[in-house]
Amino acid sequence: MKTQAMGWLAAAVVAAGLNANYHQGGMRWAHHIADSVTHNTQAVVALATGHADRFLAETQVAKAQAETSSCPFHAAMARVQRRLARSQARFARFDDIMAREEGQAARIEARRARMEAQIAKIRIPAVAMPPVAVRTSKIEVCPRIRVNVPRIPSIKLPATPVIHIDVPDPGTL
Known about the structure:
By secondary structure, this protein is mostly helical. The chain contains four helices and no strands. It has helices at about 1-25, 30-50, 50-65, 70-120.
């Protein structure tokens, strides 16, 4: 049991070290694999959802990654192309969101127009009503009530005498 626990602990320490190294920019091969998997899955999702522009952008990124050689210029160009393709994909997503919102606004406007048409069809006939006479009973006004509250007489007290007591200081005893 102790051996198995030590094995799991060692595996966790190795995994934490690899994770820290990966997130600090080390292990370029792992970054390359993660990027290619990300772009491949995004391309498949774009193709499955019918977004040809996203699919094209993702395939261009995957192609640029595959064509990078050891030349620094080609690597820099590939990075620029990747960033450009990502921004194009973001714009495509933004266009999709805007199209959805415009469609929703059009549906709301159509619903409002239908409701206005239905309200316009409503006819309220004018009805002549005779005036109504209502009898009210006479309300008598209550007489005013007067209350006299006597004032409490003020009592004058003599001034309180002030007494001074000299207490010796405790340090002088």
